[in-house]
Specification:
Three copies of one chain form a homotrimer.
Chain A (H helix, E strand, L loop, with lengths): L7 H10 L2 H20 L22 E2 L6 H20 L15 E3 L2 E16 L2 E8 L8 E4 L3 E8 L7 E4 L23 E7 L4 E7 L3 H4 L5 E7 L11 E8 L6 E2 L10 E4 L3 E8 L5 E5 L4 E6 L2 E9 L1 E4 L4 E7 L4 E7 L6 E2 L2 E2 L3 E7 L1
Parallel strand pairs in A: 3-6, 5-10, 11-14, 13-23
Antiparallel strand pairs in A: 2-3, 3-4, 6-8, 7-9, 9-10, 11-12, 14-19, 15-18, 15-20, 16-17, 16-19, 20-23, 21-22
Helix pairs in contact in A: 2-3
Amino acid sequence: MSINGRLPEEITAMLNAAGSRRAFLRNSAVTALAAGALAGCKAGGQQTQAKTPNDSDHSGGTTAPNPIAATPAAAAEEMDRMHEAGIKAFPAKTEGKGNQVLAPRMDKDVKVFDITASKIQWEVEPGRKVEAWVYNGQVPGPQIRVREGDRVRINLKNELPESTAMHFHGLEVPNDQDGVPFITQPPVKPGASHTYEFVVPNAGSHMYHSHHNAAKQVGLGMLGAFIVEPKQPRPIEKADVDYVMILNDGMHGYTLNGKGFPATEPIVAKLGQKVRVRYMNEGMMIHPMHLHGMHMTVIDKDGWPQPAPWKCDTLNIAPGERWDVIINCNNPGVWAFHCHILPHAESPHGMFGMVTALIVEK
Amino acid sequence: MSINGRLPEEITAMLNAAGSRRAFLRNSAVTALAAGALAGCKAGGQQTQAKTPNDSDHSGGTTAPNPIAATPAAAAEEMDRMHEAGIKAFPAKTEGKGNQVLAPRMDKDVKVFDITASKIQWEVEPGRKVEAWVYNGQVPGPQIRVREGDRVRINLKNELPESTAMHFHGLEVPNDQDGVPFITQPPVKPGASHTYEFVVPNAGSHMYHSHHNAAKQVGLGMLGAFIVEPKQPRPIEKADVDYVMILNDGMHGYTLNGKGFPATEPIVAKLGQKVRVRYMNEGMMIHPMHLHGMHMTVIDKDGWPQPAPWKCDTLNIAPGERWDVIINCNNPGVWAFHCHILPHAESPHGMFGMVTALIVEK
Amino acid sequence: MSINGRLPEEITAMLNAAGSRRAFLRNSAVTALAAGALAGCKAGGQQTQAKTPNDSDHSGGTTAPNPIAATPAAAAEEMDRMHEAGIKAFPAKTEGKGNQVLAPRMDKDVKVFDITASKIQWEVEPGRKVEAWVYNGQVPGPQIRVREGDRVRINLKNELPESTAMHFHGLEVPNDQDGVPFITQPPVKPGASHTYEFVVPNAGSHMYHSHHNAAKQVGLGMLGAFIVEPKQPRPIEKADVDYVMILNDGMHGYTLNGKGFPATEPIVAKLGQKVRVRYMNEGMMIHPMHLHGMHMTVIDKDGWPQPAPWKCDTLNIAPGERWDVIINCNNPGVWAFHCHILPHAESPHGMFGMVTALIVEK
């Protein structure tokens, strides 16, 4: 598994290099916890004493705490330990990776995508496997990426125990390719196949997903990105990193691209680069995504250019919406990037769910 | 009951004409279901075999399924049967129609609207009747449609068992006409009447509703559209069809204009026409409304022009908000149109709640 | 406690002066209630008969009701009595006031803010005290208000039983001042202190809050406004009244600046003045804030100028978002101002939670 072309081990190294204080802290916290636990009912458990490094531009420091009761202190240390363990584990390895670009095979001038719907076990976080209904064995399904005006054919094979259909959310296809059972086509029965074919009509960040028993089928993973590159990109949409982020909150919990923190994937860019994030919400709730350290310039809504791009650091994404933003990576460091509905991102056991990081390398 | 001037029977005919495959499917599904049920524990229940019609621009096909176990197949068929039954029933007849334009009577130069609040039974979907607190016997209440600068008088008669008051949401009326008990007026007691009168100050898509014990009273149906046509319409707001769509999610379930699918009303337009949809949310949740097949151009927010109209296919509408959009009907067919919080639109029993269709006739 | 420089008593007087009908009503309601209760099972309990005052521009009237059954009438009267009692009590005195501007002390050219996190009891509404985790003894924490380019130092002292950290939400600070434990700094242990220092990088309406076990810590009150005034204000952002409104919906219930109605604070302006409201959502839900009587012009999102200001009367504010609006106070009176998710603002017992008023004095 690679992350923007990097191995998870490299990311971990970067995170650790972000401060030797991390390693230090880890050790001292473990020590403190042990000391606190051993101290039993005695007051004055061992406390951490840490100092953040200063630089010429700013200073910070953590001074020694007053002694407090051992038991609450031990509880506090245990909480910190769990928080740290989560962050240490990031990006955690799990089985399966979603949203992988699917190269089409060509049938003359038609780009053909073969997609099979089936039922699998999906590892959302290390050790947590869930039932998933998926396209080509991954959540989100494979990323389809074509160009405005391309002719595409999608061969959908249904290996699920119930009927399904595929809707191209945001694409202005002819009506009989719209994928709504009993309105535009018959349902695709278990074991059956169905072919969709159309000329890609409009550029932008779109989606494909089930439109049959969809609250269940999409909730279980039958969704993916359908990116249409424009014939003539606008200058504002040129980016060094093009990242699709699909939000979900169904039966798999709170996820970004099918994984919950710490199994989410960091976005990595170099100082001065531009990152395009294509947010897509396939869940049932809003998710106001908040980026630390830098703002986002909103350029597209549902694949359509905003008449005047605008800036924000927290972007509210509702179910079915897509929003494209450009981040000018001018602030180096490891930046938290998460849903700002805090119970979607953090518990007393640490960060989880809709949390990742944008890493800007010097 | 007419829908944009058409009878429900005509709509049903259009839906059926949308493909003889619909009738075919229906028959084959019923056959299959019966076969599956009869097959009992035997493997290889009868399966449907359907082919979507192709046109010169695209092709699609459903091929024969592999034999699968009879019992899950029967369950799958039963699910499909329920889904199809819902769509076949659309637009379903129910008693009562809300949001009917109320012609004023003139008292000299004053447009007078007589509105009585009372308690009734309201049929949300075929056979499902609920207690409703209503204006003039309908949910939503009658549509008030006047012109900027008109002098209007609303005679509110309260036949409910509790006090009420009427607020003109979005209209910048003088304070003592604002309808907030104990701040701008006394409550209107059971059996009492109250008169509101003002010169209509600002154009746009507004609402009227109870502002007393409102979580209950609005939830039960005391709400309606208050449309103010501008003295000088902008070119962008000219439309062939002007449709008010009031979203609700209170005690009556998920509704569009007081009805749940399949009793919702399709919007009908001819190819090349423009449809204006005036979304209004009188509920307690957001509803990101998604239109298939065509995009929407957002022109107004809360009755105020957006400085630069922008495009989308999924528009998030929060409680109290109004958003006006223009749809350029350039893609013929029957298009699903629904809230994209999927549990507001579909269950294993089929589509329900916040679902309707935009029908673009060739 | 002063409200925009006025005593609560003065506000109450204004509200009462808004109509002698208020006092009249109060008396008659009590009489009616007593009559209704005394009437027992007899039909025809005493009813109120009220008349709203007319002015030359509009007229309104409440006519005599028909007799109705005494017991439902008594229930209706009791409901009205509770509603009135809430409004009469507004703005209710409670112990503690949040969001008070904290004057910095200067250390050479550095603006220093000393902030202590501790656990207290906080009075949300008259008589309802809750556990709160707070900065400097108030909810929201003290308002930090500095200027773009200022050098600031925040000395955070942690007197809580668990670790914490401070994040400057929206400020593009250097990474090691970002306040995310185990990513940019060690957690600040119970009893410990930590210093943040940076040059304020970007103007606008920002926030500071805990970023450690934040679903709990922010939910309990560890949040505040961090306002950065620009070096060169734009003409559109000049206002006579500058009001920060922090929305919350955590363990303290539905609050505006840490208080629920009737303990919320009205905004007071004179006719013709401009009010800037800086909305900030520190909760877990959206809150579409609705102002009666006048519209709002949206000028900033998350501290960044909107390229083209736009108008609305209901503004949907998601967790983590900040929206700045300008209200041109051209309509005199006491105007309800509330979240339009009605169960966040009203119950059968009257208004509560996210309700306040904008008072425009002639």
